[in-house]
Amino acid sequence: MATGISRRSLLKAGATAVGAAAVGATALAGCGKSAATSSEPLQFWNFYTPNPLRTPTSIAQGGWFDTYIADWNKKNKQQVQAVFIPNYTNTNKLQTAFAAGSGPDIFLISPGDFLRYLNGGVLMDLTPFMTKEAIADYLPGALDTRMADGKVYALPMEQEPLAIYYSEKVFEQAHLSEADLPKTWEDLLELAKKLQTPSRYGMVFEPVQGYYQNFTWYPWMWQGGGDAVGPNGQSVFDSKAAIQALQLFQDGVNRGVSPRTPVAAGDLPAGLDKGQAAMWQSGIWNVSDFRLRLPKTKYGIFRLPTPPGGRYATIAGGWAFCANKNGRNPEAAAKFCVEAVGSMSPDSVKRVADWCTVAKSDISPRKSALDLGTARGGYSSPVMKKFKDDIYPGTRGEPRYPPVIYKAISDAIQNTMLAGHKAADEAEIAAASIDAYLKSYEGAKIL
Amino acid sequence: MTTSVAPHVSRTKTVATQGKPGLSRKQREGWAAALFLAPDVIGLTVFVGIPMILSFVLSLFQVSGFGQYDFVGFGNYQRIFADPVFMSSLRTTLIYVFVLVPGGFVVSLLLALLVKQKLPGVGFFRTAYFLPFSISIVVVALIWRFMLDEQVGVVNQFLGWFGIPPQAWLGNPNLALGTAIAVTIWVQMGYYMVILLGGLQDIPLEYYEAARIDGASAWSNFRHITWPLLKPTSFFVLLTSTVAALTGAFDMIYVLTKGGPANSTNVLIFYIYQQAFQYGEYGYAAAIGTFLVVIMLICSTAIFLTTRGGRFSYGD
Fold it and tell me: In chain A, what residues touch B280 (CB-CB under 8 Å)?
């Protein structure tokens, strides 16, 4: 039976056993204790500002953060300082910092990471700093994966549903119109075959193993009614829906219409612009990328097609503000997060609308900000209107699966898509792995 | 009185400069050896020995990544053998080592034999072959990633001239590991070439002259002179390249493939990184790390035994 001990105890025991190691171990333990006081600025780790790369996108998005931080610092004694973390999602610097006991006071978190930090006991409960009106202002489902036991632990700043982008130029060359847009998976693959050339992929499904690939794959599974974890906390991954979704990615590669490696280094606007891909599954954030970087490129979007007998579904990810419960001034950090994107103050509502329609292109997670953004014309362009009115309805939030579940699903996707394994076999292996994990899982509900 | 003191002082000075009374020459040499070794021993103890012990201690715990440690005994070690990805990773590591080490050795030896010749411009070629080793692995891997790109990479464009269809060198599980090995050999061959060249140049020319007089062929020269006399250098190259293959593959794999596709390049050192820094499983990662150390010990011992510790007589 496992015996819980603290990190300090472990280091102490190690020090006794190893002798000289005590010096190093104590020093390590000391790193975990912040010597800072609340008079020092709170550290806000993010991947937007101060960004050394001065691209149109980074200037627009980093500027949004800069404006808010400057405004907060003007009005509050407790100052906040932005810390730019390059390659935030891949470097694991955040996790390493928490493991060393020196996590930042405020940080951005994705749904995929949420449960780990919540179960790790480092997320500050933001509910006491919010009004009931503000909580009720969130659109249905927008807060679900950031809550536990009725408490809010992170505040989403955006919702990013997935659709399929296509190159209008390629469609025109192939004498295709909107009426030819695929409605079913088979239509999608057939159309991809038509648009395929030796230098152009017909349909890009994400090929690189990682959280993002899983994120893009989940809606295909949901469309057939499948899921990874059932309502009673058991694995239901070995379902027909999961198997056919795995098969879809494999069919794309086997028919030669989907790539095995990233197209245009994963840069969708560049890939469509250069004619390296005809269709590409990706999120709403590309709209602002096109607007800021390649405004002359002609592209369109359409809903994810469905399997026979399936029901339309897509997924919405998005980053959220959260505060470190063990930070220097958790209350001030929580207030900073709430005022940023979770308050009913006109500034906060405007800020969310600005982020989702000016600095970036997203669906607002809050009704008030969505209405404001709509009133200001933020969703009036054909693409944004389609995202808001056609693609977003039917959206489910990104699941908050712990790493073991993520990895089991990820291996199943990779092994079917790229190694040619049988989808049914891989679904069964993943289901067994998930079940084994769920038997000993303790923590907040897996959604 | 003054005349009686002076000789005494003088005698004391002489003793002091000769060392402590009572220490034999052997003991004094022992002290000197200890003092010379001390910096290395202290450095290895602090930066290698103690972290290894702490890592082993860590492998006995389940670690949350947020300061909570649960003692699980050898639970992490039991988990290793029930983990299909670990077993696949172990298999990948063994293939990686058993292809990379001999392959790299043969290529480096051929290059060393080539650049040992007194040919015009040989200095340029020595430099050119060594150059990849002087570049950061990350930069090398990035450049190769671009060159191996399926759609716009120069490698596929070159092969296209011969009618060979484009290949997903880093996206096909059947090709990715071989590609990573080839790129690694390309990086390392210059370094091992220089070491082997040093070994080749240590072989007395008289042996080759005698063989030439006896009418020996080039192959006989290599078989009966070069190869036996190069064994100590070969031993060093094989040992260091084996350890480098087991522990030094991380940056190349991280940049080239991130362990993919479908875990086909997920060598143990990369799997340890994934477990620790992507999934927060520090205890499990430490257990795999300990396991890797055991593998290294076995490999090193096997090389020591088969080569008798690198001590070779000319008759071997």
Answer: 95, 99, 116, 403
